[in-house]
Design a protein that fits this description.
- Helix content is 9%, strand content 45%.
- It is mainly beta.
- It has helices at 2-18, 45-48, 189-192; strands at residues 60-61, 64-65, 74-82, 86-96, 99-107, 123-132, 140-146, 157-167, 172-181, 194-203, 206-215, 222-231, 234-241, 253-263.
- The longest helix is centred in the N-terminal third of the chain and has 17 residues, at 2-18.
- The strands form two sheets. Strands 3-4-5-6-7-8-9-10-11-12-13-14 form a twelve-stranded antiparallel barrel. A two-stranded antiparallel sheet has the order 1-2.
């Protein structure tokens, strides 16, 4: 399985050299557009009278991948402190304006007295390529690889994500959705295909999200929600998982998310 993931990451990188995307988007060098933390959108917040925000673009809406990417040479780290004393750590590096690489590690029982558990599947590569950039008519579309699994959930594996931003008079609302499968070696659609949907919004330095994840799972989908506050360059978030008893005998759990964003 590790070999398959590595091949997929390499294939994503190869797309950069053979795609018909504008060469300027992948030119190695200082980024030309470096104002603000939010990605370019069909209308700017200033045009709508919305206060400026330092909230970084959301790479995830809870557990749902968005189609957004990092700026060139942007760094992002993300720690999730979840049930059972586990920590899921992720790090991302924006190599190009529409492509990033990273890595993730899941450490079970990191906090507490139990034995630490780290298997081969608990350390994985991350990658995302934004195939289509959002404009007035089209949503952003991206493909990528994400993992590992944590706290009774599934790894995303190979995914296709779609994001579209809707400006309102108060704040921006972003709709995200996609499909994914953690099993790419022996994929069977009726067994391995999953879907997800999420809504995010941000006002000043406060963000909120709600998401329905692992749709098509035999045990049922998962409903998660949460909020975060950014005190640049740090973002603190509190998330609630498995709300409304979507899965039998699965209790609601909480996790603390700490993120950092910067440049090099």
């Amino acid at each position: 399985m590790l070999q398959v993931r590595t091949v997929l990451i390499i294939l994503l990188a190869q797309v950069l050299t053979v795609s018909g995307l504008r060469s300027a988007d992948f030119e190695v060098g200082p980024s030309d557009a470096d104002s603000g933390s939010a990605q370019a959108s069909p209308s700017s917040p200033a045009d709508l009278g919305i206060p400026a925000s330092s909230v970084p673009v959301p790479l995830e809406a809870g557990d749902v991948p968005t189609a957004l990417v990092l700026k060139k040479y942007e760094l992002r780290t993300d720690l999730k402190f979840h049930g059972g004393g586990g920590i899921l750590g992720k790090a991302y590096l924006g190599l190009f304006p529409r492509f990033f690489l990273g890595g993730a590690v899941e450490l079970r029982n990191f906090i507490g007295s139990g034995d630490l558990h780290l298997t081969r599947d608990d350390a994985q590569l991350l990658a995302r390529l934004q195939v289509i950039k959002e404009d007035d008519a089209l949503p952003a579309i991206a493909i990528g690889w994400d993992g590992p699994a944590y706290e009774r959930g599934e790894a995303k594996g190979l995914y296709l994500a779609v994001s579209k931003e809707l400006p309102t008079s108060i704040a921006f609302i972003r709709f995200n959705g996609g499909i994914n499968s953690a099993n790419v070696e022996t994929f069977v659609a009726s067994r391995d295909l999953r879907a997800n949907f999420a809504v995010t919004t941000a006002y000043r330095d406060v963000s909120l999200f709600t998401e329905v994840d692992e749709v098509l799972h035999p045990l049922g989908s998962r409903w998660n929600a949460g909020f975060s506050v950014t005190m640049a360059p740090i973002t603190l978030g509190l998330e609630f998982r498995d709300l409304a008893s979507q899965r039998p005998s699965t209790p609601v759990s909480r996790l603390l998310r700490i993120s950092w964003a910067g440049r090099f």
